[in-house]
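Annex B.
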Amino acid sequence: MPDTHPDLRVDPSAPPGAAGALDRAATRLAAALRTLDADARRVEPWLGDPASAEAAARYAAHAADGPDAAIERLRALHAELLRARDAAGAAGRAYRGTEESVTASLDVR
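PE domain-containing protein: predicted structure tokens.
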């Protein structure tokens, strides 16, 4: 007789819960990114002299706009959080649909 118990069970609330947690994290990161973006572009001379003003401008350009800008890496993390949220939501919907199909097929018998 075949084993009728699945090897894996998913709590039906787990995928939506994970999607919600990822969404909250993405929302918090988006708010922080808005603040960081504004702060990173504000150039203030550190010591009030031309050399420190130039250093501050170079730092701001690198932090906000450079090819390896730190803020771009955080934006990439934000995008990844959104993709993970969407994937968790889709997994939850697919799991729920499968469970409903299986339940419906068992009710027919």
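The chain has one domain: 16-104. The radius of gyration is 24 Å. Further annotation is deferred to the next reporting cycle.
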